[in-house]
Amino acid sequence: MLDVRNLTKSYGGPNGRRVLDGVQLRVQPGEYVAIVGESGVGKSTLLNLVAGLDIPDSGQILLEERDLAQLDEDARTRLRRARMGFVFQAFHVLPHLTVARNVGLPLALNGQSGPVAEARVHDLLAAVGLEQRASSLPRELSGGEMQRVAVARALAHRPALVLADEPTGNLDPDNAAMILEILRAQIKRDNAAGVLVTHSATAAATTDRVYELTRAGLHERHPRATQP
């Protein structure tokens, strides 16, 4: 599903700082992996490259065998909209839309409407325990509820790739545990490839495989090694 090959990225011109050097990562459908590492090692840079928001200096990023680095900006935008889902630490729930309309937004952007789309939104709201909040506005929700909306929205259009960037960073431990459980269950249910970027050993331990990003590159380590 996702195949990252020999990825390099520098900032600041020819003599600039090398952020990523020879990074390799493969994620299969239904597989959920975590990327951990100290601040400043390039986790956000790697996620932006995988999302097609930035272009590598060299290497390939293959999503369903399409190389993002070879696509123009419009093509990357279309691919991102159709085949990727995003969960962020800051929720990014649209304040003027109801819960149901927030969750259904990716479907609308991909031209899907009517009973099938409405059923998908209903099913996802039920899965995240928010079916009774469908007509609520974000200002009426708790932080944990807003993040559940964000998870449901990310998965609404059944993306091939789900990218989660510190999705529990603003949540208390109970809500964080709930979000992590929901995210994993839905990625597995939809047979998506999931990539979680996190500082949390607890969050990383919920994934199938854990990779640590350092100045020396990206290396797999056993999830148990992330636990205190």
Tell me briefly what this model is.
The chain is of the alpha/beta class. It is built from seven helices and ten strands. It has one domain: P-loop containing nucleotide triphosphate hydrolases (Rossmann fold), CATH 3.40.50.
Description:
With 228 residues, the protein is of the alpha/beta class. The chain has a single domain (2-226), classed as Rossmann fold, CATH 3.40.50. 34% of the residues lie in helices and 26% in strands. It is built from seven helices and ten strands. It has helices at 43-50, 73-83, 99-109, 115-127, 143-155, 173-190, 201-204; strands at 2-11, 17-27, 32-36, 58-63, 66-67, 84-88, 161-165, 193-197, 209-214, 217-221. The strands form two sheets. A six-stranded mixed sheet has the order 6-7-8-3-9-10. Strands 2-1-4-5 form a four-stranded antiparallel sheet, with helices on one face. β4 and β5 form a beta hairpin. α3 packs parallel to α5 (143-155) and α4 packs across α5. The longest helix is centred in the C-terminal third of the chain and has 18 residues, at 173-190.
